Amino acid sequence: MLFPRAVLPSLLHLTPRWLEERGLKGVILDLDNTLLPYGEEEPLPEHQAWLEALKAEVPVYLLSNALPDRFARIQGRLGLPGHAPALKPWLGFQRALKALGLPPQEVAVVGDQIFTDVLGGNLVGAYTVLVPPLREREFFYTRFIRMLETPFRRPRGGLG
Ligand SMILES: [Mg+2]
Question: Could you list the residue ranges that cross the membrane (predicted)?
Fold first, then answer.
């Protein structure tokens, strides 16, 4: 439940073609440290371009634990469906799947955290994709969580 199905070196590797090759038809995307550097409200230019190319081909749904006001500003700017706070890993994924109108096995859940994104995506049977965090928070709590995550930051079943 804690291992992602795939680990990518960056978000930019998640292309429409990569998704198509795996039978994936939609994306549930995390916000903080996945699409946006933590605490920021605008993506880096390369991630903005990546998102434009992706959403032209497949539906993308933003699922974040961010606070609602900040999330609403970001969502408005990006022009994507989504909701927050999602209370990942326990809540939010079913609602996201319903909004996408796709079965879980055809949806990639993409995020930087094992205990929210990967666990939550695996619990609903989606195809989980782990990417490296864009910016580490320096809080002790986050460093502690990263340490607990370390054994799981690889695909289930070994290399790949
Ligand atoms: Mg995140």
Answer: none
